[in-house]
Specification:
With about 575 residues, the chain is α/β, with parallel strands linked by helices. It has 17 helices and 15 strands. About 55% of the residues lie in helices and about 20% in strands. The strands form three sheets. A six-stranded antiparallel sheet has the order 2-1-4-5-6-7, covered by helices on one side. A six-stranded mixed sheet has the order 8-12-13-3-14-15, sandwiched between helices. This is DNA repair protein RecN.
C-alpha cells in the first residue's frame, strides 16, 4: 500500500500531499486542474520519464510504501541495504529541468531501472496508453499465469530451471566441440613441440647467457691480458712499482705519525682496509685471467648450443604463441601442456554433456507439455471469471476466450496466449485490440484486474492499482458498473482512480479534489480531501456543472446509493 505521496513542482502542482486511503481513492477536479499530474508523479516512482516542459527548476516525488506482505520486495530491499521504518520504505525521485534524474529507495541511491523493477512489483499504473498491455501476447500470458499461480507457478519455475540449464549446457557443448576440433588440429603439433623442448631441455634465459659467453670467448686474449696487467699494477712483479707497495709506504708513515697523534688512527684503519681490498681485487683479477678458456673447442661448443636453442625458438615459436625467446617459449610450453590436458578430457566430457542434453530435452518437453496443460485448464477458468465481471460492467453478452496456442520454445514455455473477445452474440471472437472499443477495452482490463485480484491467495500484500481515466468513453449504467467493480477490486488492493464521472467517484471510500488556483499571472493546483458535504458539492458539479439544489439532491442520492451495495444500478445521473 502507498501510505503517503508528496509531489513538488510537477506541472501545475507546486506542492501537494494527497492522502490516499487504504481502499478506493477517487481523484477529481475541473479540466486542466492537474489530475493527470498525480498519475504522472506516481509513474515517476515507477521509473517513468518526465517531459522536461512539465518540470519547474526541479521536480520531486516521494512516496512511502508499506512493505507488509511483499516478501520478495522486502528481501530485495534488504539485499540493497535500504532502510525501512516501522515496515515502510521511503521512495524518492528527483528530475531536474534539463532531464537529469536521481532516485533513492530507503536512502540508497539506485538506477532508474532498479526503481522501476522494485516499486513496479507493488504498484501498477493503468492509463489510456497502458491499455496497450492487453494487446500484447506476452502480457496476456503473464496475466493468465498470475491468475493460475498456484498450479502454473511451480510448473513455470520448473520449466525455467530446465531451460536455463539447457542454455548453459548448450554453450558448454559448443565449447567442447570447438575444443575437440582444436585437439584434432593442434594436438599432435603440441605434443611434438613439447617432446622436442624436453629433448633439448633449454633453461630460462640460456640464449642470452650463451651470447654473453661467446662475447667473452671472442675477446679472451684481450680480456686475459687486461686482467693480468691490472693485477700486476696493483701488487707489482719483480719488485717493480705498484699500487700495493706505495700503499704500504703510506701505511707505515701514518702508523708512525699516529703514535704521536691518535687522531690519525681512524685514517690508518681505512688505509689498512683499503690494502686488504686491493689484495682481494688483485686475486680476483688473477683468477679471472686463469679461468678464461680461449680454446677453439670452447667457442665451438658455445656456438653449437646457441644454434640449438635459437633454432628451437625459430621452429616452435610460431606454433606456441609467437614466442621469440627461450623464456617465452618455456612459458608457452606450460600453456600448451595445460591445453593438452584439456584436449585429453574434452571428448569424454563432450560425450557426457551430449548425453545430459538428450535427457534434458526430454525433461523440458515434458515440463513444457505439463505447463501447457495447466494453462489450458486455467484459460477456461479465467475466461469465465472475466465474463462474470463483464456482466457487472454492462457487457452481459460479451464472450471471452483465452486461447493457448503453440509457439516456438522460450524460457516461459511453448505457449502463445491470446485474449479473444466477442462483444455481443453473433460476433466473431477476435483479439481484444480489434474487437473492443476504447470504453470496452477499459472494462475488459478492469474485469481482468478484478478477476486476478479475486484469485490472489495472499491478501496481505495488497497491490496498488492506479487508473488514469479508465472510464473514458463510457457513461450511464456502464459508468456506475465500473465504479462498483473498482469498489470490489479495492477489497483486495489499494485502488487510486483519476475520473471525470460522478458514478465512479461516488463509490470511493476516499475522495480527493484537485483544485486549481490562478493568481499573479500564474496557475497552480493543490489537493484537498473532501468530507461528505465536500463530496456532495463535487459530485453535483460533476453531474451538472453547477451546485443547484437539484444537483445537490441528485449528488446526495448518488453517494448514498453507492455506499449501499444493494442499491439499484439506476442511480441519479444514469445516462449522462
Amino acid at each position: 500500500m502507498l501510505s503517503t505521496l508528496r509531489i513538488r513542482r510537477i506541472g501545475v502542482i507546486d506542492d501537494a500531499t494527497p492522502e490516499f486511503g487504504p481502499g478506493f481513492t477517487a481523484l477529481t477536479g475541473e479540466t486542466g486542474a492537474g489530475k493527470t499530474m498525480i498519475v504522472t508523479g506516481l509513474s515517476m516512482l515507477l521509473g517513468a520519464r518526465l517531459d522536461r516542459g512539465r518540470a519547474g527548476t526541479a521536480g520531486t516525488v516521494d512516496g512511502t510504501l508499506v512493505l507488509a506482505g511483499h516478501d520478495e520486495l522486502e528481501t530485495a530491499l534488504d539485499e540493497l541495504g535500504a532502510e525501512d521504518e516501522d515496515g515502510e520504505v521511503l521512495v524518492v525521485r528527483r528530475v531536474t529541468k534539463d532531464g537529469r534524474s536521481r532516485a533513492q529507495i530507503g536512502g540508497v541511491p539506485v538506477p532508474i531501472g532498479t526503481l522501476a523493477r522494485l516499486v513496479g512489483s507493488a504498484v501498477t499504473v493503468h492509463g489510456q496508453a497502458d491499455q496497450a498491455r492487453l494487446r500484447e501476447a506476452d502480457q496476456q500470458r503473464e496475466a493468465l499465469d498470475r491468475f493460475a499461480g498456484e498450479t502454473v507457478g511451480p510448473l513455470l519455475q520448473r520449466h525455467r530451471e530446465l531451460w536455463d540449464r539447457q542454455q548453459e549446457l548448450r554453450g558448454r557443448v559448443e565449447d567442447l566441440e570447438r575444443l575437440v576440433a582444436e585437439r584434432d588440429r593442434r594436438g599432435d603439433q603440441l605434443r611434438t613441440a613439447l617432446e622436442r623442448i624436453e629433448e633439448v631441455d633449454p633453461q630460462d634465459g640460456e640464449d642470452d647467457s650463451l651470447r654473453a659467453q661467446l662475447e667473452r670467448l671472442n675477446h679472451a686474449v684481450d680480456l686475459r691480458a687486461a686482467a693480468e696487467q691490472a693485477s700486476t699494477l696493483l701488487l707489482g712483479q719483480d719488485d717493480g712499482p705498484a699500487v700495493g707497495s706505495l700503499l704500504d709506504l703510506a701505511i707505515d708513515q701514518v702508523r708512525t705519525a699516529s703514535g704521536t697523534d691518535p687522531e690519525l688512527e681512524g685514517t690508518l684503519g681505512r688505509l689498512e682496509s683499503l690494502r686488504l681490498e686491493l689484495s682481494d681485487a688483485a686475486a680476483d683479477l688473477s683468477r679471472y685471467a686463469d679461468g678464461i678458456d680461449a680454446s677453439p673447442g670452447s667457442v665451438e661448443q658455445a656456438n653449437e648450443r646457441l644454434h640449438e636453442v635459437t633454432t628451437l625458438v625459430r621452429d616452435l615459436g610460431p606454433s606456441l604463441g609467437g614466442a621469440a625467446t627461450i623464456g617465452e617459449l618455456l612459458e608457452s610450453s606450460r600453456t600448451a601442456a595445460a591445453d593438452l590436458d584439456r584436449f585429453d578430457g574434452a571428448e569424454t566430457e563432450l560425450s557426457a554433456a551430449r548425453e545430459e542434453m538428450t535427457g534434458l530435452e526430454t525433461a523440458l518437453d515434458e515440463a513444457a507439455e505439463a505447463l501447457s496443460d495447466a494453462r489450458r485448464e486455467a484459460a477456461s477458468r479465467l475466461a469465465r471469471a472475466v465474463e462474470s465481471e463483464l456482466v457487472h460492467l454492462e457487457m452481459p453478452q460479451a464472450s471471452l476466450e483465452v486461447e493457448v496456442a503453440q509457439h516456438a520454445p522460450r524460457p516461459h514455455g511453448r505457449d502463445r496466449v491470446a485474449f479473444l473477445l466477442a462483444p455481443h452474440p453473433g460476433a466473431d471472437h477476435l483479439p481484444v485490440a480489434t474487437a473492443a472499443s476504447g470504453g470496452e477495452l477499459s472494462r475488459v482490463m478492469l474485469a481482468l484486474e478484478v478477476a486476478l485480484g479475486s484469485s490472489r491467495e495472499d491478501r496481505t500484500a495488497a497491490p496498488v492499482f492506479v487508473f488514469d481515466e479508465i472510464d473514458a468513453g463510457i457513461g450511464g449504467r456502464a459508468a456506475l458498473a465500473v465504479g462498483q467493480r473498482l469498489q470490489r477490486l479495492a477489497e483486495n488492493a489499494q485502488v487510486i482512480v483519476v475520473t471525470h464521472l460522478p458514478q465512479v467517484a461516488s463509490h470511493a471510500s476516499t475522495h480527493l479534489q484537485i483544485v486549481k488556483h490562478s493568481e499573479d499571472g500564474g496557475t497552480s493546483s493543490t489537493v484537498r480531501r473532501l468530507d461528505r458535504e465536500g463530496r456532495i458539492h463535487e459530485l453535483a458539479r460533476m453531474l451538472s456543472g453547477e451546485t443547484s439544489e437539484l444537483a445537490l439532491a441528485h449528488a446526495r442520492e448518488l453517494l448514498d446509493d453507492s455506499a449501499d451495495p444493494s442499491a439499484s444500478a439506476s442511480a441519479p445521473g444514469e445516462g449522462r
